[in-house]
Amino acid sequence: MTISFHHHFREGDYVFNIIMRSIIDHGYKNLTLAPSSLTNVMNDIVVEAIKKGVVTGITSSGMRGSLGDAVSHGILKNPVIFRSHGNRARAIESGDIKIDVAFLGVPNTDDMGNANGMDGVAAFGSLGYALIDAQYANTLVLITDNIKPYPNTPASIKQTQVDYIVQINEVGNPDKIGSGATRFTKDPKELKIAKMVNDVIVNSDYFKNDFSFQTGSGGAALAVTRFLRTTMIDKNIKAAFALGGITKPTVDLLNEGLVAKVMDVQDFDKGAAESMKDNPYQQEIDASWYADPANKGAMVDKLDVAILSALEIDTKFNVNVMSGSDGIIRGAIGGHQDAATAKLTIISAPLVRGRIATIVPEVTTVITPGDSIDVIVTEVGIAINPKRQDLMAQLKNVPGLPLYTIEALQEKAEKIVGTPKPLQFTDRVVAVAEYRDGTLIDVIKQVKE
Amino acid sequence: MEIKKTAIAGTLESSDVQIMLTQGTDGIVFDLVSDVVKQFDEAIKKTINQVLSEYDVQNVIVKVVDKGALDMVIKARTVAVVQRALDIVDEPKWEVL
């Protein structure tokens, strides 16, 4: 039996623990857990459920902390399957994931199940990832702390899909759902990287009226949005849409008229979550619409520029966002593989983090293939995928944008940190990573004690 | 050279290393904790051993708490802690530096 949850409450989630506690206490066994992702607040109870034989299989975007550590040490019977957000939608639509019961927490619903994520104490904005579960689960249970008068609109989840509604005291902790006001980073390294990312974008042929972009939620990504704003005003360029996980600085661009539409699959901060209900141009999209490679057309197919992060990048431009430098699972695919199909995919990352090189001869785990990566931006300079000679021509003479080969950046990193010993793994596979089309891209093995 | 007193150098900040030397009788004995132990345990010991041998320290207990320090940081902290442990902070051994 397969059960699912969404992770829109992120670190403020109460629903997951309440439901899992009840499932464990009722003595269920051999369940497959298929949430959109797993946050730290879910770790302890998942580890307990695995130890008691309640959960024997997991498919997720990612995992981290004590759960990632336990899985990397071989606690789970079956290998975890990691899927991107677009791939999860594909897998559910195609029947690769068959959800028996979806338990979806919502900050409001009426007594028939018309619900959205935009309003209420525990509002988180877009219900993007959960909408797939709502549409395809055999049985759908909504859990809420806020029953509204019938009929409740806008209805992101509709009464036609809902079997049960359960009222509890609190579905989430609003202070931990999204980060508060996002501050402009003061880290000089992040600022330098962000400025160079901006230089790459605005000096490429993609920077023209009606372009589109996706940024992440990290410090550098937020700073890129600010730099991009200034350049868009200076050059009088407006974007057709911003896509993906949305932050307040992106909503600000919408309100200033610099971006025509925000296509919103999740909201990373309060500002973005709260503005959705008042802004018809901040459009909620589900994970399939966002990024499913097997439906009749996903938004990422129209995406011009994507700015993504990385734990490791290798000299073949492959990216790892899943396993740490110690080989232990500590990340999530998220929309990485999906957004990386953009026409200009930029990875922004520091050359080294502490004594760990970011650019390495070979990544520990391949998550996003090098063929979909176009430019790497570090604080010392950029590297362009040699398959993109067109970008090479556009970017080779930009002041303040030193161009290196990826091999030269790798050597620079190794010179700073030294040569690490190779990691030791056993032969047992503890997790498999799929590419967004459902094919196998890499496996993660159990770490040696 | 003999360790004259227990000494410590460095902090527990990210990218730093804290090294403590105490008197030993059984060669150079390491107690190493590191965020990057899987990749760099031998590299860290090699750097510290090199500095110890330049000061001709043969019997010592070396407690290392490493927070991902780069090699040059480890070397600098080791020089500092050895000078303190040998009670020669006023007479730096310039040829080692």
Itemize the secondary structure elements and their pairings.
The complex is a heterodimer of chains A (449) and B (97).
Chain A: E1 2-4, H1 15-25, E2 31-33, H2 43-51, E3 55-60, E4 62-63, H3 65-72, E5 80-82, H4 85-94, E6 101-106, H5 130-136, E7 139-144, E8 164-167, H6 174-177, H7 188-202, E9 211-214, H8 219-235, E10 239-246, H9 248-255, E11 259-267, H10 270-275, E12 282-284, H11 287-291, E13 305-308, E14 312-314, E15 319-320, E16 331-332, H12 336-339, E17 344-348, E18 352-353, E19 356-357, E20 359-360, E21 375-377, E22 382-384, H13 389-395, E23 403-404, H14 406-417, E24 425-434, E25 440-447
Chain B: E1 7-9, E2 17-23, E3 28-34, H1 37-54, E4 60-66, H2 71-85
Parallel strand pairs in B: 3-4
Antiparallel strand pairs in B: 1-2, 2-4
Keywords:
heterodimer, A: 449 residues, alpha/beta, Glutaconate Coenzyme A-transferase, 2 domains, nine-stranded mixed sheet, 27% helix, 23% strand, globular, B: 97 residues, alpha+beta, Ribosomal Protein S5, domain 2, four-stranded mixed sheet, 2 helices, 34% helix, 25% strand
Note down, in words, how this protein is organized:
The complex is a heterodimer of chains A (449) and B (97). Chain A has two domains: 2-177, 3-Layer(aba) Sandwich (Glutaconate Coenzyme A-transferase); 188-422, Glutaconate Coenzyme A-transferase (3-Layer(aba) Sandwich), CATH 3.40.1080.10. In chain A, 27% of the residues lie in helices and 23% in strands. Chain A contains 14 helices and 25 strands. Chain A has helices at residues 15-25, 43-51, 65-72, 85-94, 130-136, 174-177, 188-202, 219-235, 248-255, 270-275, 287-291, 336-339, 389-395, 406-417, and strands spanning 2-4, 31-33, 55-60, 62-63, 80-82, 101-106, 139-144, 164-167, 211-214, 239-246, 259-267, 282-284, 305-308, 312-314, 319-320, 331-332, 344-348, 352-353, 356-357, 359-360, 375-377, 382-384, 403-404, 425-434, 440-447. In chain A, the strands form five sheets. In chain A, strands 8-7-6-1-2-3-5-24-25 form a nine-stranded mixed beta sheet, with helices on both faces. In chain A, strands 12-11-10-9-13-17-21-22-23 form a nine-stranded mixed beta sheet. In chain A, helix 2 links the parallel strand 2 (31-33) and strand 3 (55-60). In chain A, helix 2 (43-51) packs parallel to helix 3 and helix 7 (188-202) crosses helix 8. Chain A is globular, with a radius of gyration of 21 Å. The mean pLDDT of chain A is 96. In chain B, strands 1-2-4-3 form a four-stranded mixed beta sheet, with helices on one face. Chain B is built from two helices and four strands, in the order βββαβα. Chain B has a single domain (7-84), classed as Ribosomal Protein S5, domain 2. Chain B has helices spanning 37-54, 71-85; strands at residues 7-9, 17-23, 28-34, 60-66. Chain B is 34% helix and 25% strand. In chain B, helix 1 (37-54) crosses helix 2 (71-85). The two termini of chain B are 18 Å apart. The radius of gyration of chain B is 12 Å and the shape is globular. By secondary structure, chain B is an alpha+beta fold. The chains are: A alpha/beta (449), B alpha+beta (97). The interface between A and B is medium-sized, with 14 and 15 residues.
